[in-house]
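Annex B, item 7. Sequence and structure tokens for protein A, then protein B.
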Amino acid sequence: MRQRLLHLSKSDLVCISEFAYRSLAVRNKKEMEDLLRGVGKLVPTTGIVGGLPSGDPRRDPVIETGRIVDGGFFPDWLALYLERGFHRVDPVFRKHFGEYGTQVWTRTYRTVSRKDEKEFIERSRDFGLHEGVTMGHWSPFQTAGSCFSFAGNTLPRRKRHMLLLECLLPHLHAAISGLFSTPSFSGVLLSAREKEVLSWKKEGRTAWETSQTLKISERTIVFHLQNAMRKLGAKNSAQAMATALSLGLID
């Protein structure tokens, strides 16, 4: 990630920090919508929508209307999507909750074989939805995973814009988790040092930069990050930081 951040400007990094603080202040749906619209100004998209299921989406991949946040997504399409229950045939949505990686829509579309999936894709294109990306995080202690979709025909080809979205994702996940989830603190116990390194991670610090601040070795910082990741069931340090934020384990 450190090498990839070289593709971002100092202004980009400042914007990411500002969004990190804004995400902590989200207390209602309107503020979450405003946060998503702010992302749309930083990364050119034609629409953004986010959501968080109430249960375990690996068993029942559906997001109730009340837990969907519209950051300027195609309103007619979104209404039809919800009315017709298109989540049952949307190949991107169905695949998302099994891996939570970055999904480029057209790449997933090329793998479909079912007639109803192909009809869904053609219907979405009638509304101007040709290309975009979907990404999110899973919070194991909340049994819920976030889902954010960003529409934009050129988005997947823009390395800087994709990197910005990946950097913003943990903060968007923390914000929507805090808005809709009732976190469970049961069984989660981070040490003071683990909380400290995650807090510096939230500030955008690398392991090396944190080691210089805390006057301990970079290897020790990585050790504490890995311990936190294991305890929080996270795949990487960014996801561990987002989960710790949503659980209230760090400020």
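Protein B:
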Amino acid sequence: MKSYEVNFDGLVGPTHNYGGLSYGNVASQSNSQQSSNPKEAALQGLAKMKALMEMGFQQGVLAPQERPDVAALRRLGFSGTDAQVIERAAKEAMPLLVASCSASSMWVANAATVSPSADTADCRVHFTAANLNCKYHRSIEHPTTSRVLGAMFANQQHFAHHAALPAVAQFGDEGAANHARFCREYGEAGVEFFVFGRSAFDNRFPAPQKYPARQTLEASQAVARLHGLRDEGVVYAQQNPNVIDQGVFHNDVIAVGNGEVLFYHEDAFLDTESMLAELQSKLAKVGGNFQSVCVPRSAVTVDDAVRSYLFNSQLLSRPDGSMLLIVPQECQANERVWTYLQSLTSSGGLIREVKVFDLKQSMQNGGGPACLRLRVALNETELAAVNPGVIMTPPLYGSLTAWVEKHYRDRLSETDLADPQLLLECRTALDELTQILKLGAVYPFQIN
């Protein structure tokens, strides 16, 4: 039976703005307060989806969330009509209004952790929504994320869904941004790779001093248990706390893995050699041949990696066995990074080609190609069981492009977030989107 890695990209929401909400994310903070262009952001993301579809890769789409999140504001004490809640929040606590308007759910690498059926005890694909409790604006996402994923992967014979972990610091979970999977073929048993920034209960593990470590070891272990993963099919690795303090807020800012290959920066991990040896040993037991590509700090500094998002790229397997790297335009603009990539692809190694995409709107808010997609390994039967409305096709691309052109603003500033009309625009757009994607009622305004 054939198997595939399907990339489900997050559709940028109508309230995409530069709120500078993510402490530790250099791009997010440095572009704070600039005016954004939600329409351009959504169209840039759709263009990447279309391009990958046309290259022959399986591509899907994951819907954005309702924003501003008026229900979240009500839980914080704002009352009255929806318009009055927004007005009061704008007057009394503008940062809370900005947080409730964040379109950060576009970065669906943080939506959940996914384990394919070849790895799990009950032979189903497992999803655990990420609690994202390190940042308030992201911690409010997981209830809607769970409903959307449930509508996309609804067949209980093939798919299992788990609620987010307890929303406390000890179980901080950032989803697939700190998770990768290595395998010979997507439909075969593999090794799941969980990267954590700190341990909540074991002080033997060093922690960063400047920026928070968002993923705990304990959260990663809990997800592995929920998914029924075998001990011999899991490797845990600690992210280097020094690179977290340089702006590497997720592992996917400093490393990316796919198939049998890990592409990583020299400074990405602690105890790198023992971690690589464990990956090699465990993958060999299921018939795989683990390989790694280390980018030396002498060629690309951590600062270069953070500014260019070299590692927040998509590493894709092609039919001939070679690999394609999807990178943001910022990699081409960075002389050291681009020189390295030219050398990499001309060496005849594992990664043979680089394709560049313009994702400036997302990049300015701190998310590149890898942030925008959630990878789900599916066999033919499982793919057929996915809600067909969310699988990218030329007609769906046309419908979504027309939908964005119809509903999205081409400029959004912080003051615009206080306009109650923005909420009405968002709800109108999302109500239509659920019909396009055949999701049913997944948003609070459709349910309540």
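Comment on protein B: The radius of gyration is 21 Å.
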